[in-house]
C-alpha cells in the first residue's frame, strides 16, 4: 500500500560538521538551530579526526576528502540537501560534483545574506584574513576583517574569555565603518553570540549557520 505524500517520512537536510565530537548533542547543535528557526528536519554528522575543526590551510586540506565522503553517505541515505557547516566553504565545489542534491556552504550563504542587508560588511572570524569564498562574494562591499584576541581555532571560542574577545573585535569592525557584520566561523553560532552583538552594536549580524539554513529552506521546497 502506498503512503500518502502527507505521511511520507521527511527527507532531512544533512548538516556536515567539520569539528569532530563524540557528543551527539554537540554534533547536532547547528542542525538544531536550523530546525528551531526554519522548521526543517535535519541530520547532523561530523568528519573524523579533527578535534579542532578547520583553522588553517593544513587542517582544511585534511578535511576536504572527509567532507566529500560524508556528503556521499548522507546523500545516499536520503538527505534532500546538504550544508557544509564551515564558513571557509571547504570542498564545496568538489562536494557539489560528487552528489546529486543541492550543497550549501555556510560562508557563501552568509555573504549572500550580508549583501542583502548592508553596504559595508565587516567579517569576524578565526583567521587573520576573511575566508576567500566570503571575500570574493562580498567584492567591494567588504570593509575589513578581524579575529578576536587569543582565538586561533573554533574551540578557543569556548574559553571563558571568548565572548568578550568576540565583542571587542566586533566593536572594532563597527568603528572601522562596518554597517553589517558577517560571522565567518560557525563556532560563533555554537556560543550563541549573535543576539549579544546585535544588542550591543545596533547593526545586523549574519550567522552563517542560520544563513545556510535559510538557503536550505529554498532547496527543501524545490
TrEMBL record:
It holds the Pfam family Asp_Glu_race. Gene3D superfamilies: 3.40.50.1860, Phosphoenolpyruvate-binding domains. It comes from the Bacteria. This is Aspartate/glutamate racemase family protein. It comes from Streptomyces endocoffeicus.
Amino acid at each position: 500500500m502506498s503512503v500518502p505524500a502527507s505521511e511520507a517520512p521527511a527527507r532531512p537536510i544533512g548538516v556536515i560538521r567539520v569539528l569532530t565530537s563524540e557528543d551527539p548533542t554537540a554534533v547536532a547543535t547547528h542542525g538544531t538551530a536550523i530546525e528551531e528557526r526554519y522548521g526543517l528536519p535535519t541530520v547532523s554528522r561530523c568528519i573524523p579526526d579533527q578535534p579542532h575543526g578547520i583553522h588553517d590551510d593544513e587542517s582544511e586540506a585534511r578535511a576536504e576528502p572527509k567532507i566529500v565522503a560524508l556528503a556521499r553517505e548522507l546523500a545516499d541515505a536520503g538527505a534532500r540537501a546538504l550544508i557544509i557547516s564551515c564558513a571557509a566553504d571547504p570542498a564545496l565545489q568538489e562536494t557539489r560534483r560528487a552528489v546529486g542534491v543541492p550543497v550549501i556552504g555556510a560562508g557563501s550563504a552568509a555573504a549572500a545574506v550580508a549583501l542583502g542587508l548592508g553596504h559595508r560588511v565587516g567579517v569576524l572570524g578565526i583567521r587573520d584574513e576573511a575566508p576567500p569564498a566570503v571575500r570574493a562574494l562580498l567584492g567591494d562591499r567588504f570593509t575589513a576583517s578581524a579575529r578576536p584576541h587569543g582565538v586561533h581555532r573554533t574551540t578557543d571560542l569556548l574559553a571563558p574569555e571568548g565572548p568578550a574577545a568576540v565583542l571587542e573585535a566586533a566593536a572594532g569592525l563597527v568603528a572601522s565603518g562596518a554597517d553589517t557584520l558577517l560571522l565567518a566561523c560557525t563556532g560563533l553560532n555554537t556560543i550563541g553570540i549573535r543576539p549579544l552583538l546585535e544588542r550591543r552594536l545596533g547593526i545586523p549580524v549574519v550567522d552563517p549557520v542560520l544563513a545556510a539554513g535559510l538557503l536550505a529552506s529554498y532547496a527543501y521546497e524545490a
